[in-house]
Amino acid sequence: MMPSGGPGPGKGPNWGPGGGGVDRKLASLAAYTGLVGSLAIAIAGLEGIDLWSQFRWGELDHLRMAVVASVPLQLLNAALLLPTFSTNELPAGLKALAGHYVSNNPTADLSPAAEAAFAVVDVAAGELLYRGVALTFLGHWLEDRVYEGGLDELLTEQLPAAAAALGAVGGGVGPVASTLGVYGLCECAVAAAVTSYVVCNVLWKSERAVQRLELVMGAVSSAAEKASRTAAARRGASGDAAASSGEGSASKQADAAAAAAGPKPGKLQMAFGPGTPAVDVQSAGRVMRSSAAIQATRDGAQSLLLNAVFIATGGNLAASFAVSLANQLIISALQRRAMQRMRKRNAAFAKELLALTKAQRKTSKGAVQASQLVPEPPKPERPGKASQAPRQP
């Protein structure tokens, strides 16, 4: 499941696999889902919204339309989670985002059946709050403001007429506006605002992460450069002392001169996953921003699609619930497949690393034994001392 990309923006805490145990995760997930559902029922009671009448399962044409409309989103999910992380042609931004989606699965430790059962309850609670209550209430509130301001004719007559004057480009605005009416157009405005918030929130969080990375890596780079300069100054001072006393070879003097000239600037590098080359801090920022742009596109498309299905079906929660549940189940299956692939690759890499370590130890042990078998060279005789003739038997 997506930790924050279900029926609405910011859906739940950002848990990852491991840490705390399955029981603690289940308690946290159940508490959050229960809170969302309870809020939906409580607010609906206060505002006089009949949530259960919005589930119109008998309108099969709405369900078929919702399934067809969700195909592009599922293709986008597959494009993010199906490719292997070891594919060198896959851009680093896509790799980083795919790793984020795979690792941030709050129900990864559950069995597939338990995860599917929880998804049904979780999606239902989200649909009740985000679309059954929030979108419905905000749509009616904005509709009242439109009528109070006398803008109903502007929305339903003047703007469609102006769009029709553009020809084929805006010719379809009039029929859509007349079909939706003032309330439907207000719902569209709310949905557009929510989608904009989802996109901006992803980009803003990414920009903050990039700024923190640049700050930390800049501090580490400055500390490393300072330490390198201090060590170079010490080597230069010792080299100057050796040169002034006439001791030290020419190579040592050359090393001292190179050290005194100062260290060569180095670049801190980082990688975003297996098969991804290491990049410097500036390139890492570009990778993070491109990853955030892809995530914002995907999450914005999901929010826009689910709200559009609800609005186009006249507020049918059954249609948006079916699309949202199918979306979560498909994502969960893709996440589990990608996680299994990662574990197999990590296990194979661990075996290769162990074999390489054993080979290095064997080579090192053989080199030590060989060095012990080499006889010591004869000691040179002192100058001015005659060598003794070998004794005759």
UniProtKB/TrEMBL annotation:
Membrane listed as a keyword: yes
Stretches for region Disordered: 238-258, 360-393
Membrane spanning residue stretches: 304-334
Keyword field: Membrane, Transmembrane, Transmembrane helix
Statement: the UniProt record of this protein carries the keyword Transmembrane helix: yes
Protein's name in the database: Uncharacterized protein
Organism (species): Gonium pectorale
